[in-house]
Amino acid sequence: MTQAGLGAMALKVFREPNAVARPSAPAALPQALTHPHPVQEPTAMNPVISRRLLPGLAAGLATLGTLAAPRLVRAQAAASTWDTIMQGRKLRVGAALSEPWYYKDTANSDAPGAVRVGDVTWRGIGPRIGELIARAMNVQLEMVEVTWGTAVAALQAGQIDTMFILDPTPERALAVDFVPSPILWYPIAGLARESVTATTWTDLNNPSARVGVALGSSTDQTLTRLAPRAAIQRYPTTGELMASWQSNRIDIAVTTGPTVDLTIARMRRGKSLVPRPIVAVPAGAGVRKETDTRWANYLNTCVGYFYNGGITQQIYDEFMVFRGLEAGKATPIQRELW
After folding, report:
1. Strand 271-273 to 184-192 pairing
2. Which of 6, 89, 184, 216 lies at a 20 to 30 A Cα distance from 139?
3. Residue 277: is the preceding peptide bond cis (ω within 30°)?
4. Is the distance from CB of 209 to CB of 227 less than 8 angstroms?
5. pLDDT digits (tens, 9 = 90+) for 156-204
6. 3-state secondary structure of 102
């Protein structure tokens, strides 16, 4: 008999509900009592396959696996982010409302930098970069509102395709991936009075330096490490920090470059101080963890192209001018310009 025939026979043993066990000899003792390694006999409830049948059964199962594998591969490929974007003709970008990254222009201004999505006018780094990528891919841009706290879960669940300005941290990297190229760099900076002459961390490391910072923030850790001798005042929120600066209780409010730029635009007072050596944090682009890397590779190419070509810096400057900052006064987010 052929292996295929044996495989069929083996499958038949499993499928025959009324298979009859072979009768035992009338006078024989139970095998368990006479053999150290008893061989179980086949019954309707416990069929046993002969070793001679195994090759045929294995061949049959291998054939089934070969037939099913392409379908499984196609199903997995269809679920990738790249295929989702290209098949749906839509790029979904997560948006956490926070200037200068994601801003809803409720006035629908026609100033440069507007990104129209449905009936909403978006501005900022995220919508502008998303628009450029969607245009290059010839797909529609969709802005999906999330928070910084829910962005990672949204990526994992496939609710968004990417999240810009998501800082890469060891904790986040356990849940999502980040493209190697940074979106931009934002330096630790201070909102300083015009009379302040300090330019370095060494200058700030002085008891006469009246400095404020948001309690427990990354800027707090940096300030404490590089200027421990400064007269540091700590505040629960950035808003309280800026209010303290405005009321003249401190001379320098240490935060990030973009926050300083926005504050100067709003208050029409102060200057940006970026102490040297410059300490900066990269802002990244998060993507879902998956074996298909086409989307991550493409996104990395786009992000690097926009950054190295100065396009991201132009988008940032454009937004700051829109918010009232004098042209050319924005803190560079391209570190090669520092």
Report:
1. antiparallel
2. 184
3. yes
4. yes
5. 999 999 999 999 999 999 999 999 999 999 999 999 999 999 999 999 9
6. strand
